[in-house]
Design brief:
Elements: E1 4-8, H1 17-21, E2 27-31, H2 40-57, H3 65-87, H4 90-100
Antiparallel strand pairs: 1-2
Helix pairs in contact: 2-3, 2-4, 3-4
Length: 110
């Protein structure tokens, strides 16, 4: 099993200006040592680590709300989605898909 995974983004449109000017592709190593990613709890931990690393790859969370919604969150989602897809782990993919799906709207009783 992998001891580390590397999260990298390849010229995402949502990348920050600082990263766009850099010739280096940003990446972050994520330790998976001691995690049973085939279990639900292990996959949750791994997904959280991947999302945290994706946030770093995307330049860190900006202080402006509009930048968070327009640039940062889509970047984190895209990097996380690509990383999860590359892991070939159905349990991890299911957790990500479930988390990424919009919450159903409840009908109000009148």
């Amino acid at each position: 099993m992998f001891k580390q995974i590397i999260i990298a983004t390849f010229a995402l449109a949502a990348a920050s200006a600082a990263h766009a000017q850099s010739a280096e592709i940003p990446s972050v190593k994520v330790s998976v040592a001691g995690i049973d990613s085939q279990s639900t709890s292990g996959a949750r931990i791994l997904l959280q680590r991947i999302e945290t690393a994706a946030g770093k790859v995307c330049g860190g969370e900006p202080s402006q709300v509009l930048d968070r919604k327009r640039i940062y969150k889509p970047c984190v989602h895209e990097v996380t989605a690509r990383t999860v897809a590359s892991m070939n782990n159905p349990r991890l993919a299911a957790l990500f898909d479930n988390k990424a799906a919009p919450a159903p709207k409840l009908a109000s009783a009148r």
